[in-house]
Amino acid sequence: MVEQNNSDDAVKKESPGDHKNFMGIAQYLKDIQQSQKRSVPPLDQWHPQHCGKMDLRIQANGEWWHEGQLIKRAALIELFSSVLWKEDGKFYLKTPVEQIEIEVEDEPFLVNQIDQVEIDGKTYLQCTTATQDVVIVDAEHPIFMRDYQGERRPYVHIRFGMNALIQRQAFYHLVNYGELREENGHTILVLQSGDLHLQLGT
């Protein structure tokens, strides 16, 4: 069930400069996008001031909500996802001059496609997110299982301590690339990506 966070408390906590911050970051991202193809900036090299909170929420189903309104423009979400940052368990939008806290229910990314690719004679798993991040599954970007609200869910590490939920259809493809085994009454999915060997308890 979608929560729009339209309570009186949420309105009272909203910063007067919230919309200004949102538009300011959007303009900054558009400016840098015009000069280069989409890429993730060197966020780990930036040390801006913390500038409070923004009423921006990424729900567990991947929807982005700003001030109670669903953001429907995929291009805008892709822009903002490129400056997502996680620090001390909190999520932020980060630019060279400001770092604004946002809310993330589970993880900020969703994997909607998984492929097998050949690199230097080895077969790897490749994950593509809904925001066009592409990661090769390896020791630094492993696939793992984790509980969320009583449900066992598959994830892959993306960057800066943030992960992506592997969506159901993509997980079916992942199963096809691996081998299912029964061990001690539990189903285990065995995967290989390059030299990385994974066993996922499903």
Please give the structural blueprint:
Layout lengths: L7 H6 L4 H18 L13 E10 L5 E3 L2 E2 L3 H8 L2 E4 L2 E5 L3 E7 L4 E11 L2 E8 L4 E3 L6 E6 L2 E9 L2 E5 L1 H10 L1 E5 L2 E8 L2 E6 L1
What key phrases describe this protein's structure?
202 residues, alpha+beta, six-stranded mixed β-sheet, 4 helices, 46% strand
Polypeptide structure, described:
Helices cover about 20% and strands about 45% of the residues. With about 200 residues, the protein is α+β, with helices and mostly antiparallel strands. The two termini are about 25 Å apart. Residues about 1-15 and about 30-35 have low confidence and may be disordered.
The gist of it:
The protein is an alpha+beta fold and 202 residues long. The chain is built from four helices and 15 strands.
The portion of residues forming beta strands comes to over 45%
The description of the largest β-sheet is: 6 strands, mixed
Indicate the overall shape.
globular
Compute the gyration radius: what is it? 19 Å
- The assigned structural class equals alpha+beta
Helical content band = 10-25%
Q: Looking across the biggest beta sheet, what order are the strands in?
A: 3-2-1-6-5-4
Query: pLDDT below 50 for ≥5 consecutive residues: which ranges?
Result: 1-16, 32-37
Q: Overall mean pLDDT score? A: 86
Order of helices and strands: HHEEEHEEEEEEEEEHEEE
Kindly state the number of beta strands.
15
**Total helical elements:** 4
Instruction: Please give the alpha-carbon distance between the first and last residues.
Output: 25 Å
